[in-house]
Design a protein that fits this description.
This protein is mainly alpha-helical. Helix content is 51%, strand content 8%. The chain has helices at residues 9-40, 46-49, 53-64, 74-83, 85-90, 92-101, 105-113, 116-129, 137-142, 145-158, 212-219, 273-279, 289-292, 295-299, 303-313, 318-331, 335-343, 358-372; strands spanning 187-190, 207-210, 241-251, 256-266.
Length: 374
Amino acid sequence: MIKITHKNIDQISNLYTSDVLAEIATRINGIRDFLQLLHTTNNIEQRHLGGKIQKYARACKVLVNDGSLKISKTQELLNYITANHAILLANLQIIEHEVRVFDDINLLRQVISSKPHELKRLSSTLERRITIGVDHYLYSYLFDYTGYYNDFINPAFKKLELTVCPYCNRNFITNVGPANDRTIGPTFDHFFDKATYPLLAISFYNLIPSCYICNSNLKGSIPFDIDTHLHPYINEMGDDAVFDFDLKIARNSKTDEIAFAPKLEVKIQESNANYQRLLGKANEINTGSIKVFKLKEIYATHSDTVKDVYDKFDKNNKYYSKSIIDLIKAVGADEAEFYRFYFNNYYKTEDFNKRPLAKLSSDIYKKMKAISKQ
């Protein structure tokens, strides 16, 4: 579990928020225009609908709370309005009230852009102001994850230059192809699940670019909270949980081979606030990020990576480790530069999101470095 970082993350978030707010405003104005039409026009004709078929059809869906309604032609819309005029008028004042709630642009901006610690409170604040349930089509239309994905969500997160899943630091999530092609690229996990918190469906810091395995196969609908699980925008395993290994002798008829057994060890006490985020409660399988994402089990399969670092460092030869240090000095490189060249990965925590297994390699390297000094 690594942290999502970028030097321009605030700028990326702010630009995303402005773009999304503009789209929400466009959708609200479309609804408001249709409400005004119903208010002021007794006999609606085709001339009133010309060029506005799409936004008025969506407004109809909102008024009758039916997202599956399919209207694509002017005459179809006119027929629907005529046949359901009484129902549309009956819901008019209710939707007018809800639309006025979203005139509070400052509250909307906070819901879209606030950091994880504030999101649940803001969602509750918005829910208290509305009079219809959050399962109403109005809210799935305004906070439209699927509809906003191609034009807003995926382009914004491309700017984060995140190459590897932050939950597992194991699988690539690099975008390939056009924005509307989801075949290869990240899935977006809603840290606060979309079913429980639909008003956070497009909030920047609630969208975690991640691999399909972590998002769908492992996390799924498990409820997450910042007190019970690591949030990639504010938490990481860091030194609280580090990779280590055991050496075992695998005996066969011809030779004895050293087997490397990777393991993930939590170094902090249960009294530490981060302990529960890492391991959760003893008898609960869905608490703690290490358990949910099966990091101990997954990383136990990467003995080859541990062996590579071990062999390159050669813990039994202090002269070899000294030669590494001498070579660093000779080429004028710092340790991180040399590490990337020699161990084919990234050494600094802020770079772990660029290559799979970066934390594993770095932790094993640090262990070998410590051994060489003994």
